[in-house]
Specification:
There is one protein chain. With 216 residues, the protein is of the alpha+beta class. Strands 1, 2, 3, 4, 5, 6, 7, 8 and 9 form a nine-stranded mixed sheet that branches. The longest helix has 12 residues. A hairpin with a 4-residue loop joins strand 2 and strand 3. It contains six helices and nine strands; from the N terminus they run E-E-E-E-H-E-E-E-H-E-E-H-H-H-H. It starts with a strand and ends with a helix. Helix 3 runs antiparallel to helix 6 and helix 4 runs antiparallel to helix 5. The protein folds into two domains: 145 residues, no CATH class; 60 residues, no CATH class. The protein is 28% helix and 36% strand.
């Protein structure tokens, strides 16, 4: 069943104007990320077509905060390289957008994060990667750092749905992100998660962890 996820990538900006317009690539095809995911050409086509039918584009957010839009996207389309985007930061009307613009020009805003639902994928044994074949795009955020090294609930759930056991560090961080204290998270990792390992994580143990994550 599709779940909300995030794809974090370096922000590749081709240009950014003094008035807040910018363009670049929100995703590059054929690149294997740290989670062994590869976006394939055509992955965004259905979603972009649906947005065009609504005469809209996904929201431009700051750090995935739904109450902090900082601009608008004016164009999104696939080309031979990836998902090409054009947008405009509302620097004259929004202090946060002005701040993001300054960081973008200075090069200190280094990430873009795509919020999406994964509709279709397959595992390629030769490449040792998951091929993301259809992505339902719902927001595109500017982020201070691409968060590939940070655990998120969605990432832990995604690994579980693939039948994999997420690294302990990601599970502990995910628990803390949803409100567990440091001591509570460590206690779970020591007494509960410690019984699960990559070789024999199946049956009741893995089902228990999936159930836990689905309730977070």
């Amino acid at each position: 069943m599709p779940t909300k996820q995030r794809l974090d990538i370096p922000l590749t900006v081709k240009s950014v104007s003094d008035s807040g317009e910018f363009e670049g690539y929100g995703s590059v095809f054929g690149v294997k990320d740290s989670y062994s995911d590869i976006v394939v050409p055509g992955a965004f086509q259905k979603s972009l077509s649906a947005w065009r039918d609504k005469k809209q584009l996904p929201a431009m957010l700051w750090q995935h905060k739904l109450d902090e839009p900082i601009g608008i996207y004016t164009e999104m389309a696939e080309d031979d390289i990836g998902l090409k985007i054009s947008g405009r930061l509302l620097i004259d009307d929004d202090p946060l957008a002005k701040r993001a613009h300054a960081h973008m020009k200075a090069g200190s805003l280094s990430g873009l994060s795509i919020g999406y639902m994964l509709k279709d994928w397959e595992y390629d044994k030769d490449k040792g990667a998951f091929l993301l074949k259809e992505i339902d795009l719902w927001e595109v955020s500017l982020v201070t750092f691409p968060a590939n090294d940070e655990a998120r609930i969605s990432e832990v759930k995604s690994l579980l749905e693939r039948g994999e056991v997420p690294p302990p560090s990601k599970v502990e961080r995910a628990l803390r992100e949803v409100g567990f204290s440091v001591s509570q998270s460590k206690a779970f990792m020591a007494k509960g998660y410690g019984a699960i390992n990559q070789r024999d994580a199946e049956g009741d143990a893995l089902d228990y962890l999936k159930t836990l994550m689905n309730h977070l």
